[in-house]
Amino acid sequence: MLISDVDAQEYNEYYRRYTSKLAPDKTILGAFEEGKKEVMTFFKSIPSNRLTYRYEEGKWSIKEVLQHLIDTERVFSHRAFRIGRGDTTPLAGFDQTIYIEPSGADDKSIDQLLEEFEVGRKASLNLLGSFTSVDLCQLGTASGWPLSARAAACVIPGHDIWHMDIIKERYL
To answer: What is the rounded CA–CA span in Å between residue 62 and residue 55?
Structure first.
């Protein structure tokens, strides 16, 4: 299934900032595979003395941004799973800011964080690969808005690109 197959009515307008980062002619699984390589290469290339850098007081460090990518993938994969399996129970939003401090991201090595990312991405790929096109088109509700399983999936690699762009702009 192509990224361009996802209709803007399948998700909250807010997520367009992420989905618009994806090439429309890519498949969803292709975006996940390519995104995995890009994230791994990008974070490995950052000098170790920059990994706990914060461009402004109160902002996340680069390690914390990577942890945020990991946590967000978990949340959106869970949403895709539940919606794709036909669960119509409205799904709550999540407060990304409360996840960072207890994660201990700055105390983890970059290798630990990248392994955590890689394991999560493999699980997401496995899940998405198990879905039929009908499963991916299932529609549910998350954070009070319609969300399809395929739109939930597309948010993940687009969100990664969004944050890597911010790191390039503000951190490096």
So the answer is: 9
Averaged pLDDT for residues 46-62: 97
Query: Which whole-number Å values give the CA distances from 8 to 13, 45, 102, 137, 155, in the listed order?
Result: 7, 34, 34, 13, 12
- How big is the CA angle at 40 (ends 34 and 41), to the nearest 5 degrees? 90
Please tell me the predicted confidence (pLDDT) of residue 171.
97
pLDDT band at 87 (very low <50, low <70, confident <90, very high): very high
How far, in Å, are 86, 137, 156 from residue 69 at the CA level?
26, 24, 8
Mean pLDDT of 77-81: 98
Structural domain of residue 83, as residue ranges? 3-170
Name the pLDDT band for 32 (thresholds 50, 70, 90).
very high
Q: How far apart are CA 57 and CA 39, in angstroms?
A: 25
How many helices and strands in the chain, by DSSP H and E? 7, 2
Q: What is the CATH number of the domain that holds 158?
A: 1.20.120.450
Report yes or no: 124 and 73 within 8 Å, Cβ to Cβ.
Answer: yes
Q: How many domains does the chain have?
A: 1
